[in-house]
Amino acid sequence: MTKIPPADHGVSTAGDAGGVDGRLPTQGGDEADGRDREVAYDVITTPVLVIGAGAAGARVAIELAESGLEPLVVGKRDYGDAHTTWAAGGINAALGSLDPEDDWPIHAADTLNEGHHLNDPEAVELTAKHMPDRIRELDEWGMSFARTDDGKINQRYFGAQSYRRTCFVGDRTGEVMLETLIDRAQALEIPYRENVMITRLLSDGTRVDGAVGFDMETGDGLLFRTNHVVLAAGGFSAAYRRHSSRDDENNGDAQALALEAGARLLDTEFVQFHPTGMVGERYGDEWDGRLVTEAVRGEGGRLYNAEVSASDASGGSEALSASGGERFMERYSPDQMELDARDVVARAIAQEVREGRGTEHGGVYLDISHRDPDYIRERLPTMVERFEDLGIDITMEPMEVGPTAHYTMGGVDIDFRTGETGVEGLYAVGEAVAGVHGANRLGGNSLAETVAIGKLVGSHVSEQVTADDDAPTVSDGQRALAEREFRALADLAASDGDVAPRALLEALGELLWTHAGILRDETGLRDGLDRLAELRARTADLRVDGDRTSRSFEYAVNLSMSLVVAEVVLRTALERTESRGAHYRTDYPETDPAWRQNLIVTADESGLSLHRRGVAEPSEPVRAALEEGYELDYHHLE
Ligand SMILES: Cc1cc2nc3c(=O)[nH]c(=O)nc-3n(C[C@H](O)[C@H](O)[C@H](O)COP(=O)(O)OP(=O)(O)OC[C@H]3O[C@@H](n4cnc5c(N)ncnc54)[C@H](O)[C@@H]3O)c2cc1C
Fold it and tell me: Is 80 exceeded by the pLDDT of residue 620?
């Protein structure tokens, strides 16, 4: 166990408990600034509060409703508008539509291999085993999966998978999947409260009995009184400067809330850098890091370095090859080529760029123009459309791409049969948690996890709810805790220093990209921690422009969450003195068998603590599949 000195987590400052009948008195400070520090708050009771309305939260809520309960779902955006809608390429299930040899143990074995055997084998097996049923269920609920000519659910290749296992709806899989889940949730009349930001769980460190937040449209405080909270609030990839996530999702809310409530975080050093994010000035800032789906490589897209000038390259792939752009994956992965694991391809690109063979924007070229334009339009409609809007015809010319922070394998440590976190009444699911993906995620497995584990968690939570949970009361202790948080939020909104929260968020993103990015080492990580302390000190000088409904305030709250995960990522990346999967230490470039251990983080008043935990062994059928050594025959694709 490594004990780490205390740190001030976050930017908000808590005042004394107080307030009468749900109203808070104005708190100190400069009255002349005209800001109203009073926060009105509503008390809302529910048997189960589901925080997050992406695929994971929606699937949990459906299961709860089907068990006869009426959970309340909250999310930061409008109903149906969650990060999940951006998932593009597909969802894995060993259906065997095209490759009948495929089976769940092979899916599990591929997942463990890709996760470099840090995964929780039980989590992997539950996901792989349940997925065929979850796909059939989504199909029954109306999800419009692509079909084969004979009417089966079609499946495509995805990186590092032995068979065609990825079910899809063009390149809009997440969007259509969430629509399907939301339709189902609406048919079950599951209540949903939009535009709610949860900022703290009511916890004494051993038990959670509610949550506190605010309505982002009115600014009013909200106290949710419940004995069961399911955290389905996503990951933390948006904390990085270049990322493929929606900017205002995936700021680390789930991990920060859970850690502060007394739960454990697991393997937070593992951040997946997707090899193909958009880079280059011609796309404009708003597109920096946005994902070019893996489906492009799945459908045969090839990567070329830039030993050709960008202007020649814009003449099309023929010009590119003719002038010497090298298909560099032949050097890194001659068998799997572009379809090797994401970490391998991302590092290969980073290496090409580092050695001067990248584009001037720090990327390489991805080209699918050798395939028939109609085929490309049919299989990759969103990509074609997006690039067309930017004046680029991907059926004729290459895209400029480079690694982008895409997914966080690390997260809340749970028991995958139940979603339990070790803090009574608190459960977690989806990208918020860690365990299925180990050191690196297999593409298509995240959507799979949301529904496979979401159903199990919903089912378990429904069994925990008792008749008393329908009308929980608000204790004095809870009220005091809640009011302290409301006052802290009021103080934060009243911040009148010189530094805009957005500027600090950007600085934090840059810090993580530079110090805890694709290539890491001890000096850089220690430096990152020093810079993090400096950055945290600057939060004393925040200036929030606008009230609690403003973007500025939202950024300030996001910053408080991202600061927590940034420290955890830097600490755990420093602690893991080996390279494995997505975590690459240039000073420890080898995988160390002794490090086949999970890294757990806990927090208390004295700061963060790190502990190691051994990894369990997979079951017999999965061991057999691992021994069989299945792998993709890349030449299927040629
Ligand atoms: C561009 C892109 C493409 C992808 N493509 C694929 C793919 O093809 N296949 C695949 O398997 N995976 C893919 N992924 C990953 C996948 O989309 C996500 O891992 C998955 O959707 C996560 O779902 P979730 O329900 O756990 O979280 P999310 O969809 O992130 O939902 C989180 C929810 O929590 C809410 N929330 C967050 N914080 C708070 C708070 N403080 N208070 C209240 N509510 C809060 C949000 O508003 C949201 O409703 C992709 C990811 C990206 C970025």
Answer: yes
